[in-house]
Write a structure and sequence with these properties.
heterodimer, A: mainly alpha, two-stranded antiparallel ribbon, two-stranded antiparallel sheet, B: alpha/beta, six-stranded mixed sheet
Amino acid sequence: MSATLKSYAVRLFPQIAALAVILLMVSIAFPGFFRLEMQNGRLYGSLIDILNRGAPVALLSIGMTVVIATKGIDLSVGAVMAICGAVAAACITSGYGLVATLLVTLGTGILCGLWNGILVAVLDIQPIIATLVLMVAGRGIAQLITEGAILTFNDPGLIFIGSGSFLGLPMPVVIWLTFGIVVALLVRRTALGMLIEALGVNRRASMLSGVSTGVLLIAAYVLSGLCAAIAGIIAAADIRGADANNAGLWLELDAILAVVVGGTSLLGGRFSIAASLLGALIIQSINTGILLSGFPPEFNLIIKAAIIVLILVIQSPRAQTAFAFLSRPRAGEKKAEQEAK
Amino acid sequence: MQPDNSHVLSATGIDKIFPGAKALNRVDFSLRRGEVHALLGENGAGKSTLVKCLTGAYRRDGGRILVDGADADPQSTLEAQKLGIGTVYQEVNLLPNLTVAENLFLGRQPRRFGLIDAGAMNRQARALLAEYDLDIDVTAELAAYSVAVQQVVAIARAVDLSGKVLILDEPTASLDAHEVAMLFRIVRRLKERGLGIIFITHFLEQVYEISDRITVLRNGQLVGTRETAELSRRELIAMMLGRELVQEVAVDHGAKGEGGDVRFRFRGFGRKGHIQPFDLDVRAGEVVGIAGLLGSGRTETAEILFGAERADSGTAEADGRALDLSSPRAAIREKFGFCPEDRKVDGIIGDLSVRENIALALQARRGWARPISRGEQDRLADDYIKALDIRTSDREKPIKLLSGGNQQKAILARWLATNPDFLILDEPTRGIDVGAHAEIIRLIESLCEKGMSLIVISSELEELVAYSSRVIVLRDRAHVAELTGGKVTTEGIVEAIAASGGRADA
């Protein structure tokens, strides 16, 4: 077991280190950064804010990780968020109960995933093209549902999902943490993880070894759709309305970035959901950090890009080889250090 | 080794270190002008690594390379080309979707007014290929031609670009005898022109046919360089393996599975456009060999038996029970296994570990919800690594880092782990070294003794003759003959293939 833990530690080290460095840098620019307060049974503070604001991208990155592990990509998640937000708002305003609304919305996300999965697995369309279809059409569908307006609602149950709290943590945080753990356990405690990795590395060889590649591919896109649906509900609940034009806009790119920062290769194969979630937190920390440190907003995107380039350079195979080479003589020391911890 | 004028290339004390392994240890190698120098060794001996150091694809960690007596340090294949070193790989590294002429002149097309002069390019291409007695339409896509022609085009390009040293990395692996002869004519002509040619292959007959000297590597070390004429085949094998091969293959027909009952029965099994319907009976504990030229329907037969291509006619049954062979998954449920011909594309999952590659088929059959525990996987992998002597530093190594023969053994282990009743092996010994070769043949024989039914496809006829109790001969995508008992000889197979004017190549 300790060997497994150790391999996890090695795998997640770059992401944890990057996150720590970014948080430290922000705390230098903004001294009150690490302060946490308890008010009305709920934690407040910048760190909680990062966890909370990062919820949609964190959720998207869970599904995106699995899709990318199959050597695919899902560009439609932002649009699916918009569709699902619209569906949730439409359901709740036309008098459905909370449970029914949630079921219909999650079902919509699954349906969207099924569509993508069938295009990719059955019709053998390249994932980037297959999911582009829904990315483009999705916002149109969402606008049809909301009839072009921002569809607002005031159902306390639905709003609770966006702004309520549970055990001192905001609901969105509880949801993405729980969902992330459930999915991570599902793929690692069963053989799904290994079969997905095999499929991503070599689809034909996996098929010839008896792996049900088609079913797995569809399942990956369905999971991604489901994640987008949950993210869509949270985004809508947060603003108490469904905005077909802006909900989830460009978030597919943040989700892909989170997966990449998490170190999962776009070429498919080995993946880590925990690393992608850390990647999502890194992205959100950068966003929040830039705002807090009071840089003029026009710098935000450039600084974000610069930090991300840096992280990717550190992760690049060439840099990794260079690090491995530099740290070789001191390998013994490092081990002692780890054991001390 | 003193560099003198007769050597076009000489390398001394070449070292190459990979993380965790020394791939080359102070290897010396020299190449004379106008000689064909065979570079031999088992898989993983360091042949490819040495070639890659010479062509700049790898940076060497020590040693000197002299080209024409001057120090050379190629940093990339482009620099190596400028030094006069050209390489042609087993998998032709040209662009199949461009024309022959474009491939020959890619990156250096003749220009007129800054635009590519297609007319001049095609003329020059024709002239260039004429030197190789190749009269083909240079404006056609490269993919339209056979591998042999593509190989010649690759050689023409390499020689034209480089001109001093030509490295041929297993050029004959996918050629038939006729094509090999054509290739060798070209090699001899280039040799007369004074090129130094490094020839890497697993076919010992070809080594004796074409090479002047032989250098043998083993485990990254130089074993020796000898004149071909003075080296007996037995000595050579001993140099390569470090041990005398006791007996390459034992031929023993009497003992082989004549007795058992027919276990698998295929009737009118076929698929339009792939393979004509055939009848096939396989007994328990029997090896049925399949022979035929490239493109005669050998692989198609394997694919249809395994469900990789769905049969559109005929029936399959085992012990009188109908079999569902509609997909590989279904076939695996019926306890079928299939080691495909193209290991890299259809066999290995490159980035995954040896352990995961071995466990994959068993896991897939059990379904995702019933994972094989890590402990069980470790045990499974360790057992097969030991039983099949898979050489890997540990079971967690990505399989793509293993040599071809060891990859093949791992794929075999993948199927043996599922405990199959019916195992199809498509070219199980292609592109692997002599040592692994003999081991795989022994393995086939022992599986057969345990009562497994095997179908083995191979283009090495001696090998087929050695382990098959019957041989099916294919021609033009149909089963045309079945040889049994005393007729299972290489001559018999060749005759059956040649009978009634089969095509020369595919």
